Amino acid sequence: MQLNFIANTNVPSASGRLLPVLDPSDGQAFDELQRSNADDIDAAVRAARDCFDTVW
């Protein structure tokens, strides 16, 4: 399973929902991605802004 990478940390999506990654040759799921939503985007933007304002 792949997690979101926000603020230098791997985190699950706020929704807790997953999206399967399908192999196009046989249609079988071989991995899962986080089904991110607006809350995840807001968290990522806040983390990026904080990094820009403090570290850079």
Properties at a glance:
Ald_DH_N, elongated, Aldehyde dehydrogenase, alpha+beta, oxidoreductase, 30% strand, oxidoreductase activity
Number of DSSP-assigned strands = 4
Q: Distance between the terminal alpha carbons, to the nearest Å?
A: 32 Å
Q: Which residues sit in consecutive blocks of at least 5 with pLDDT less than 50?
A: none
Strand content: 25-35%
Largest sheet: 2 strands, antiparallel
The 3D shape can be described as elongated
Annotation field: number of helices: 1
Total domain modules: 1
Element-level helix/strand string = EEEEH
Gyration radius from CA atoms, angstroms: 14 Å
What proportion of the residues is helical, as a percent range?
Answer: 25-40%
Helix-strand category: alpha+beta
Compute the average pLDDT.
95
**Strand order within the widest beta sheet:** 1-2
GO molecular function: oxidoreductase activity
InterPro entries: Ald_DH/histidinol_DH, Ald_DH_N
Keywords: Oxidoreductase
Protein name: Aldehyde dehydrogenase
Question: Nutshell version of this structure?
Answer:
The chain has one domain.
Descriptive notes:
The structure is a single chain. The chain has one domain. It has 1 helix and 4 strands, in the order ββββα. Strand 1 and strand 2 form a beta hairpin. With 56 residues, the chain is an alpha+beta fold. It is elongated, with a radius of gyration of 14 Å. The model has no long low-confidence stretch (mean pLDDT 95). The protein has a two-stranded antiparallel ribbon. Strands 3-4 form a two-stranded antiparallel sheet.
